Structures
1.
Amino acid sequence: MENQNFIATILVDQSSEEVFSAIKNVRAWWSENIEGGTEQLNDEFTYHYQDVHITKFKITELIPNKKLVWHVMENTFKFTKDKHEWTDNLMIFEISEKDNRTELQFTQLGLIPEYECYDICSNAWNHYIKDSLQSLITTGKGQPTLKEEPNELEESFVEKWDAKSSQ
């Protein structure tokens, strides 16, 4: 059976080091609405978009210039029946050399067509990987979602997460 997980691939002239560095600079290509560390093994960070989507990630694998994996520890969508669709998904960034260029393959392990958010989420990832991250790598400037003020959903999520983490 064909792989049903979402995959986006880009090919650039920059080095694997430059690609890896850009991936870790999440605020410069995905969203300025990220709180926490995004560069070291075991770093945890929270992403939010308005009151529509909030997610808590942990970096569970980091092989410099080769691979980076984020584990979705907790997720809340406002727009799906299953509010926690992404929970326990993995975001996998794999870097390799191909035809004297650097290839980045992004896979969201768990984002499958059966998910209610698949169309919206895959379109968003295509933009963030193929447009914004690629632009950050090739020009030094990405197209992230701009910073917003924290909202009640985010604040309650963070409070709940902090309380759970301190147990």
2.
Amino acid sequence: MTWFSRPHRDDALIACAGLLGGLVLWAVGLHTQGGRPLSGAWVLVPLLLMAGLELLRRTAPQTALVAGTCVLIADQCTLGSLATVVMFTDIVYAAVLYGSPAAARRIPVTTGLITVGATIGFYAWFHTPDALLIGVMTGVISLAPATTGALVRNHREAAESAWLRAEQTALLAELDRGQAVLAERARMARELHDMVANHLSAIAIHSTAALSLDDPATTKQALSVIRENSVDGLAEMRRLIGLLRDTSGREEPAAAPTLAGLEALLAQARANGAASGLGFTLDDRRPDGTPLPAPVELAAYRIVQESLTNALKHAAPGTVEVAVTRADELLTVCVISPYDQRPGPRAPGSGAGLVGMRERVELLDGTFAAGPGTAPDDTGIWLVRAQLPAEERKLLP
């Protein structure tokens, strides 16, 4: 702050009140001391100067304190005014409250030393117990306001710190809530995609075959597959919607699929892909009696399910190979599909399948890769490979 900063409104009111009080005391002839060399109206000079310094109590508190100390010393040469002394105590208080942190620490210590020094010095000078009153008065006009200012400042800083902590806590809670909502939305999107995309892809493929082939037997078979997938997809949709809307907790959630259902999953894929010339094989090399953590089983099942769905949409006629192995505390899921440069997929896709598989693997701290490759017979393949931690301790944060 500079000398030319506009004083605060409260500081101007305090200065006016102090000046007015001092004028009233002078008018009625009430002074704090007598027998001084400067009598009469001289008492108004320190009063006016101290009132002017009150305007600087907030904008330049340390300057006001130094100048106020000089004015108070000069006031001792006059008859003295109680208003001048009271305004000085307010300047000491403001210097601690509004001054720099270093000044706020230094002023109470300095005024305490001055109080002790004045008490000892005047007692040694006058050798009477009455001299102790001078030390008491020195403490009242210097140490007491400085200590009060320090207490108020500490209280304000503690309140500001608590407010900042509360604000930061609220901000972190809002960020956590937003992240939780996004994570839950992503999880719901993955589950919905994996549960329904397989059935809808089969419906799209077989409806295209039924519309393009003028063969009653083929059309009947396609419609049968369409009905089966539509009924299964509708049932899964209803189950998922029921879980989302049920907030009473009375309904038990449906059991999560496990790798034990891979045979049924491939049987359904064989029925859906027969018209497209696709065959499906399963090579499950997991040792018997070795359970997997539930999140790992669900992720592996969904990866196989989504890979089969993509094969129904994009794979060339041939055999889709699914391999599941477990070694070195890792569960490896590998799906190999025939691949060629087709003009377009059998059914439309959104591209969310690969994203969902990658997210599932990353959530379990595994590795995921998907892309084209070359088979031993120089034909094109599409390879999906995921490695997941097979031990419970690997999943702990």
3.
Amino acid sequence: MSSAGSPRVTMAEVARRSGVSPMTVSYCYNQPDRVAPDTLRRVREVAAALGYRGPDPTARSLRRRRTGAIGVVLGEHLAYAFEDPQARRFLTGVAEVCRERGIGLNLIPTTGEDDDVERVRSASVDGYVVWTTVDTDPVLDVVTGLGKPVAVHGGPAVAGAHVVGIDNRASARELAARTFPGARRPAVLSFPFDRDRRPRLETGPDAGRVPFPVTRDRLLGIYDHCRDAGLDPGRLPVAVVARNDRAEAADLADALLGTCAADAVVAMSDQLAFAVLDAARRRGLRVPDDLAVSGWDDDPDAEREGLTTIAQSLRDQGRACALVALGDRTPVRGAAWTATVRSSTR
């Protein structure tokens, strides 16, 4: 047996002691189904006696120029992957592909700090999936400049990367058309505008200047409907949350129903829509007679709440992103979405 101070046992030594070629030893570890059972058993016994633990995974990765893993750049703290319902469903789809292909998954959190770029660049992965980020995120230049496949979920669209996601502007226009009819004081409960994640209440903010593309496109789509319906987007109250969290959105939901006296709210997720429904119950408002509410994602609780929502499969989108990151050349088309109308709208 080898000891801590002895030279590392090589594949060639195992092959010589076993009476086979080094290629056969390699097959015993990497493709054992190609080796006769008796030979496989003899090689494994000799390797165990010599203390040989198998090919060096680092050297093998260098030879193959493959690490056997993909990286997901979160653009959030690591706990976000487990806390946010949307992120969990998306990452479930990514993980399914990893399991099917027998590869690893590297979660890479970024929070806008100076070391983000180096953390992403030094990740030992074969391709990248980027959770939606701002247009100016320097990480985008890094991942698209490494010569590896890149998928960006929800945008922004950048050269050298495939964008996977629904048409947020079209779905927002459709959702507003289902939510605002009959309303005199429509409003929006919005995702964060930028990475500072400052919660606030604005009136008619300039949607085109919003750095997060998903937020921007959804707000633009809502404005599209307002113009179609003869409403002035410049007078539309927009409450901006710090994150997609039902409890944290409670104060802003109250502000929309109190300060703004909103009688119709398009929320940019079902979790945010649930916060509005919670606020409506506290105030004794009837849905949809006093208040129409809608959201996105068709969460498991959306049907029970009677919530009108945009149904989309974040799990399928996660799968699509993972396949792109693995080098799948299948053309990526817009993800499917449908407007599911229930009793929360008029």
